[in-house]
Amino acid sequence: MRNFDLTPLYRASVGFDRLADVVDRAMTADVAAPTYPPYNIEKTGEDSYRISIAVAGFSADDLSVEMRDGAVIVSARKAEEDESRSYLHRGIATRAFERKFTLADHVRVEGASHSDGMLHIELLREVPEALKPRRIEIAKATPKVEKLDA
Questions:
Q1: What sign for the dihedral angle of Cα 36, 38, 41, 44?
Q2: N or C, which end of the chain has less CB nearby within 10 Å?
Q3: Beta-strand relationship, 118-125 and 48-54
Q4: CA 10/CA 27 separation, integer angstroms
Q5: Residue 107 and residue 135: Cα distance in Å, rounded?
Q6: How much is the pTM?
Q7: Angstrom distance (rounded) from CA 130 to CA 123
């Protein structure tokens, strides 16, 4: 894998530290990143998104969704299993996990719901008025009248 030096980005820009950190994290990410549990990220509107995570075998009480340091952290801990059960085949994984999704600036969690073995996290991007594009009115200049010396 290639290594990229992001030092010039830090030297020549102000306020992009978080972007550089995200790029740096993506470049140094482990190739064998965890794939459990599977998830989808979808765009549901102009400024709205949804993260859907397959959490079969977990109840809503076993799941935790938390916002911390500009990221959504989803974790699950299964309550103690009933030892009296004897499985011939166990294909539904209910092992503990933690997934972290880094959010862009001005993206916040609207809510979360759990149904049919899926955890849905609704996200909304709210751009502040100060950052939205706005049209600047251009004032017309009045012509200057020069006095002629007589």
A1: negative
A2: C
A3: antiparallel
A4: 16
A5: 25
A6: 0.69
A7: 21
